[in-house]
Design goal:
With 310 residues, the chain is of the alpha/beta class. It contains eleven helices and nine strands. The chain has two domains: 145 residues, Rossmann fold; 148 residues, Rossmann fold (3-Layer(aba) Sandwich). The strands form two sheets. The chain has a five-stranded parallel β-sheet, sandwiched between helices. Helix 4 links the parallel strand 3 and strand 4.
């Protein structure tokens, strides 16, 4: 098995297409593991992993923890709200205290962009970015592109539209990088107020018309409105947003082709996507959840192998 070219996973921007392919091939093997009666392997029995979540998370945290336990790693969970961070302790002091307990790897979600990169340059443990502010969410992008590959056979040459709150979404940026690395065409679609200025410089198309975007694409990745990251109101109302940019069955049925529908979760049913679309055969939302465990197992394993070879 080939090695990754990186020692940490802080963002998709640092990964090559070869790195992504190594991760996908490793995830293929772990997907077989998690679908058999005994879902655990002893690969990382001597590795200790700390999950540091400075922002609330349900799906990502659970997925990482499950991936770690499937690999037989020792797991330490850290919640900022119940820690000395709330008393003013710095990020470095917090992490160094945890590392003094002989932790080998840190999975971190943090509200500030660049926090994972900052940490990776200052500690000896491997760092995996589980989301840093509005910057990147690399494991989500990897599981999304892996899910497209699984459904359509390849990512190269496919047309993918990312719909919704592009400005405040770390998922959008990481997906753009990952999809382009693998040869896909990318479009972003949403209200002008939710599309970053000059995003065309990343090599993506821009549309403000959902029907136009759906007629162009093979895959639609529907994002939710990130109200918790907005410091002002960018849309008149969720109802108006749903009318213009929500994906419902009548719109799906009116298309002259089948498209694949994705969503990184959590879903605001009736806003960006209706239940009859989210639960349809076109949607691979639950496949994304399952693939998230396999992808995170692959990343953790590949980085842990580099620890053992040092």
């Amino acid at each position: 098995m080939n090695n990754l070219s990186v020692d940490h996973l802080t963002g998709i921007e640092q990964l090559s297409a070869e790195d992504i392919e190594i991760i996908f091939q490793t995830a293929d093997q772990f997907k077989k593991v998690i679908n058999r009666p005994i879902k655990k392997v002893p690969s990382l029995r001597d590795i200790t992993i700390a999950n540091l979540f400075f922002e609330n998370s349900t799906r990502t945290k659970l997925s990482f923890e499950l991936a770690e336990k499937r690999l037989s790693a020792d797991v330490v969970n850290f919640s900022a709200s119940n820690s000395s961070v709330s008393k003013g302790e710095t990020l470095i002091d917090t992490v160094n205290n945890i590392l003094s307990m002989k932790v080998d790897m840190v999975v971190m979600r943090h509200p500030y962009p660049g926090a994972a990169q900052f940490l990776s340059e200052r500690i000896g443990a491997r760092v995996i970015n589980a989301g840093d502010g509005k910057h990147e969410h690399p494991t989500q992008a990897l599981l999304d592109t892996y899910s497209i590959r699984e459904r359509l056979g390849t990512v190269a040459g496919k047309k993918v539209v990312i719909v919704g709150d592009i400005s405040h979404s770390r998922v959008a940026l990481s997906n753009i990088y990952a999809l382009q690395r693998l040869g896909a065409e990318v479009m972003v679609c949403g209200p002008t107020t939710l599309i970053p200025k000059h995003i065309e410089l990343l090599g993506v198309k821009v549309s403000h018309n959902l029907r136009e975007a759906l007629e162009w694409c093979d895959v639609a990745n529907m994002l939710r409105i990130q109200l918790e990251r907005q410091d002002m109101q960018h849309i008149p109302s969720l109802r108006e947003y749903a009318m213009r940019y929500g994906l419902d069955k009548s719109l799906m049925d009116s298309l002259e082709k089948e498209i694949v529908v994705m969503h990184p979760g959590p879903i605001n049913r009736g806003v960006e996507i209706t239940s009859d679309v989210a639960d349809s055969q076109n949607a691979i939302i639950l496949d994304q959840v399952e693939n998230g465990v396999a992808i995170r197992m692959a990343i953790i394993y590949l980085l842990a192998v580099k620890i053992e070879r040092q």
